[in-house]
Each structure stands twice: as C-alpha cells, then as structure tokens.
Sequence to fold (635 residues):
Amino acid sequence: MSALTVDSLELSVAGIPLVTGVSFTVGAGERVGLIGESGSGKSLTATAVMGLLPDEVDAAGSVRLSDVDHDLVGATEKQLARVRGRRMAMVFQEPMSALNPSMRVGDQVAEIMLIHGTRPDKATARAAAVELLGQVRLPEPAETARAYPHQLSGGQRQRVMLAIALANDPAVLICDEPTTALDVTVQARMLELIRTATEERGTALLFITHDLAVVAQTCERVLVMYGGRLVETGSVKEVFTAPKHPYTRGLLDASDLEAVDEHGRLRTIPGAVPGAGEFPGGCVFRNRCTDATGDCAEAPVLSEVDDRGFACWNPVGGPA
Amino acid sequence: MTVQILRRALIFVVSALVASVAVFGLLAVLPGDPAQVALGVSATPELLAKTRQEFGIDRPLATQYFEWIGGVFSGDFGNSYVTREPIGPQLVDRLGVTMWLVGAGMLVALLIALPAGVFAAVRHRRASGSVISGLSQLGVAVPGFVAAIILVQVFAVQLRWLPAGGWTPPIVDPLDFLSGLLLPALSLGLVQGAVLTRYVRSSVIDVLREDYLRTARAKGLTPYRALLRHGLRNASVPVVTVLGLQLATLLIGAVVIERVFVIPGLGSMLLDAVSNRDLLTVQGIVLVLVLAVLLVNFVVDVLYTVLNPRLRQAS
Fold:
C-alpha cells in the first residue's frame, strides 16, 4: 500500500506547461529522492502535492494519500487544511524565513498539534513540543522552546521545522532542499536526522534535491526529473551505477570531481535548462543530448518494470 | 526590554526640554511687544513699562524661560496677556476636547483602514482589491476641510441628521455629544483612513509573500486563519509607525476642523490666541501640541519592542 500516489500530474501557467504527465508512488515508510536541475519542476511538483500552488498555476491529474478519501488535486482549501500538517507535512528550503519571527519556536511547534487537535490542550501541546525539540536533537529543548527564531542558527531552525513537520506523525514527509542553505557539516547531521526520524516513525519521505550525494545518503529510490517530466526512475543503486537516460548520466558525470573531458575540464551537461515553455517538442532533453537522433522528435514514454524505468529512445548502454 | 524603554523615556524627556527651548525661543524673537499689543498704540511709556514688568518681559530671556518652564511643571502656564486669566486650566479643558476629536478621528481611520486594507491586500490581484485601492487613492487626495464641507452639506444641511457644528460635553448629554462628534471625526478620519488603508494593504501584501505564511498553511491553517494568526502581528509593525505619524497629522488637522465645526478645542484656542497676539497662550498651546507628538512617538517606540522580538535583544 503506497502512502502517496501521484498520477498524470499536469501543471501549467496560462497554458504554458510546467510539469507534464508525472506519475509516481511512495510506499509507506519508503524514502524517495526527486532530483533534477533548477527549473526541472521538482519543487513545483512538491508544492502541488502539498496543495500549496500559487493561484495562477493550474493543476490536473491526481494526488492521493493513504487514509484520505478524496483527491488532493481540486480539493477545497478547507479539505486541504485538514490534510496538511496532519497526514503530510513539509520542510522547506529556506530555514531563515520559514518560521514566524514574532512567535516563540515552542509555540510554533505546539500550534500544529493544537490545529489538528492531536493534543488536548495548550499545556500538553507545549510539553510535547519540548519533547519533539529534544527528538530533533536541539540542545536544551525546554530553553530552545522559549527562544525566538532569530536567536537560533540556520541548522537549529531547520531542526525546529522538522519538529513541526513530524509533530503529528504524518504518513508522508516532503523535504524540499532542506539542507541546501546549510553548512556542509550541519548538512550531514541534518540528513542523518531526517533519515532516522522517518525510519523510527515509518514516515514516507519525498526528498527533493539537486544534490546526488544527498540522495545517495538519504534515499532508497530515486526519480530523475527534467523539463517537467520524469525521465528516469529506479533504486538509488541502479540509477547511480547504471544510468539509462543520458540526462542522468550527465548529472552523474557532472558531480564526479575526478572525471574530466578531453580538455582536462570537469564534465558538464552542454547548454542550460531552457525557460518554461521553451523546451523542445518530443524528448525535452534532445537539444542538449549528445546521443539525440531523429527518433527523439517523438516524446518517449517512461515505461517502468519493477520500479525501474527511463524515457529515452537511445538509452545509455543500449536498450535494456 | 526595560532598558530599551528607559532609554526611550530618556530620549523623550531630553527632546521635550529641547522643544520647550525652541518654542520659547521662536516666540521670543518674534517682533512686536506684548505690552504694546495689550495696551494699544496710545499707551504712555510709563504704563508700558509697568505692564512689561507685570508680564515679566522686562527681565533677561533666560530668567523668563526658567520661570515659565518651572511653572509648566506645576501646571502653571502663566496668565494670558489679553484676558489676564490663567492659561493652564483653559489648556486642560481644551486639550480634553481635542483629544476626543483626535481619538474619534483615529478610530474612524482604523475602522476604515484595517478591514479595507486587509481586503485589498488579499484580493490585490482581483478587481475588488483594485477598487478599494482606487477609492483610497481618491480619499488621499481630498483635504480634510473639503471632506468636512461636503459632509456638512449632505448630513447637516440637506438631510438634517446631524448638527453642522457646536460641542456638547459628554457629561452634559452623551447623545448630543456623539452626534456632534460624528461629522468632525469623519472629516478627520476619512482622509487618514484612506492614507492608512494604503499602508495596511502594502504591509499585508508583503506579509502574504513571507515564507512563514506558507509554513502556517503547510501546518494546516486555511489562508485566512494563517494571515490572522501569523500575518497581522508582523504586518502591524510598519502600520504602527504610520499611525504615530498620523496622530501628529490629526492634531494639526484638528486645528482646521475645530474651526469648521465651531468646537472649543486646542486648535480654535490656538487660532484665537494667534489673532489676538496672545503670545504666552500660543507658547503654552504649541508646547502642549509638541509634547503630545513626542509622547505619541515614545509610545510607538515602546510598541515596536513589544511587537518585534528582534528589537528586544539589541541593547
């Protein structure tokens, strides 16, 4: 039984498609990474799953959670408000601005429990908040609960965000680049914390990042996104050791600091991610792909066998 | 926090003293002899000298200042050059009236600006939000006395619902008091309300874009409740600043509005004193007005530290 099922998700602004035909599932307690460059549509996909899209973005398709009897796409704000923070929760990229500056952090953690009535009263919720702050390994949780956000470091604030997200034991946790704004050393501890916290609670994790190393460290399965489409899926091990899509291979090459091209320079993917609505027809990657052929004018379909799939006419290493 | 409030209080006291010197100095350098004004051009030199002595204006300026400011501390603003009556008690009476007027004007402004500003912000992409913005723009452009004249024309002259002027103290007849206060308060408050609407709108729009409001929604609050619980307090910081400035503007606006509605407040007292060349009375009124503005600024500063925890630490 999957915790989160996204089916044929289509997102567009004023008729310009931003995300096209994205389908995936996240099993209960499974940790899945969603990777891609900036502009690939990964954050937008996560925002759509949370139902937090800006007014101007149109959504179609389906997003379903286990234990929620309605589709989240097209749900009313009221319906979504009951689900958010209770069945699914999200940790955002920017810890410095994600907390209310004029509210003590303990109260901000307690609030999410009071909104959904998972604790009977303020005192109990506050005590639970202190306990949660301890669980995300903030030093002296009782004292931290009384602090205002500006008195905490970025890493500490992100721990508070994680405490808020986990407070009601949601079935699904979405993390949108939660460590991108943090120091490398802080980053490693934060990742470890996200891993163990979701493992202990059996929370499914959808982890969005552009950093392949972070995915390798945190996730079991990975979805590679480009141009608003999923281009490759599979276990972290398979995708990272035997990539099928030239884009995935490009990403891997680009993050390998030992591999160099014939000029002795670090490898990159040629060109840049086109702007929204400027992707080529057919395969969205073909204008940057070194292996593109005439076939690529027609869009390849992502076909999955046992959670392993890719959308490419000329896969790396030949057809599987 | 206490340290900051004490520091603000100290700044308030120092500025008040500087202001008193400035007010005294400005009126002292004005040409014209109060004794001459009081007695007329045909007064004999002996009488003039005697009157000068009586007014105390024959002494050095520094002595005059310290005598005056010393009296002010005990509520004695001296005696009017024209009526020879003590200024203090009259000042207190008039200040009471003006405070009712300014308070009611501020209330009108807030009652307009808070709902209209929040509504215009939440709907700023839609037509209804733009209509509010447009109306507030129009309101900003109308001077208070024009609003007053229109209001009197419609509600007092044509409809005869409210009196065109006059003042009934609240103890004498609360209903008459309120009906007399309504038009002046509207004249003062409409314009300030329009100005304030624009500030409320823009600071709420800023807050709506904040990440923490998205966090609030991700926690399970509807957009409306997220704004109410997490947005308004943060949006109120810039609004409080403007509110402080507006209170000063309202005090000045009250001078004109009191004239239009024949209200015996500080404003009409000031205008009378100016036209009678009653310099000591002018001096007292201006000092009280300046002190009121300084006091408002002090309260705004204190409110800042209460509203914004980031300001509490820096000492």
Summary: The longest helix of chain A spans residues 184-201.
